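Worked Example 4.2. Read the sequence first, then its structure tokens.
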Amino acid sequence: MSPTPTTGSGLLLPVQDEDGAPFWTYTARGELRVQACGECGQRRFPPRPCCPHCQSFGVEWHRMSGRGRIWSYVVAHPPLLPAYAEQAPYNAVVVELADEPRIRMVGNLVAAPDASLDSLDPAKLRIGAPVKAVFHEMGEGEDRVTVPRWMLERP
């Protein structure tokens, strides 16, 4: 088993697989897309090889608006890994997508796309707050990946 990839500062990078590879290609372009069934059209996340509704292996990728609302959140402290301890307290949010409320994505709510994880005052977190997707490049070389993050629509 290979070690989990990290940035030079020790932050964890997402593990990419064949089914999710297009998701990361689109985020690198600044697009939020989710997998959909090529037969029944049902959208799904995380990506997987087979539709859980009709069992088709047909796949399409639908562009989302990047808008959503905070469905849940936590403020982590004390974190377990040293690179995260330096940024504590920071949040992890679950965002329900406006285009497809059955789909929820996990990420961080930040003050700006390239801001540190602790850039937003935890007192500003509210269930139901409207958010929009922004994109942040992490890692270097072959490990470079663009991850979606979230910002409040009305800070």
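Now turn to a second chain, presented in exactly the same format:
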Amino acid sequence: MICIECAHPVTSLYTAYSSNNIRLTACPNCNKFADKYIEHDSVLIFIDLVLIKPQVYRHLAFNRLSISPHLHSTIRRIFVLITLFDVYLTWARAEKESYRDESAGSQLEREVLQFPVLGQYIFFVLYCLTETAVTHGVLRYFSRYAASKSPEAPSYDPDTVTIALLISSATKLFPILMVIWSYDIPAAAKAVGWAVNVSTIEALNIVLMCGHGKACGLMLLAVASRRATVRFFIWLLIGRSGLGMIRDEWHAIRHIFS
């Protein structure tokens, strides 16, 4: 547990006198409340999260969601929800670009869109999971070298980095507004991608206290690794005619059971 204002370690966040009566702990370093969000409801926390306030990131990453020896159940639910929205955006962008112009999009997307719906869904789920796994793996590993060595900085914890990354990726949930308003999906996907990158850089800076320069370097390394992995993924499927083989097997299985 840390003070969300100055990141100084504290032994407790509040003292409970009864079930409805608590007193927030004052930080011995800055004399402010160690964690004011203990008394705030989820709506105010979400608003401050959208505004990328450092205090709310520290509250969630160090004081609220890191109390379990394993990833908090809330984080696991956020991961599933974000992945589903990421699959939707990627799939919808590929379909819309294909409808606009048959020559638009990559060869991979044109090949995949010839699959049955279930085959397309499985492919895009694996595609998005691969991107997420590479991004988190690279940032979890290299963050230890960029984390601040200051005695006032929180100790490095890879799970805390994962929590911060998932919190910053919550921007991917904004396309839920497409249910109400019609947006241009490729443009929305690009805007969401840039917003997630900016939020991730800020989250790394807040959690690691490493400065924006190192945070940008970590993000560039993660993006480069993610793109290299995706290109290798595409080469496996297209360069070696993998998609054709998968499609032939799919039709053979359907023929057997039809």
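Notes for the reader: The first strand starts at residue 14 and ends at 18. Residues 117-146 form the longest helix (30 residues).
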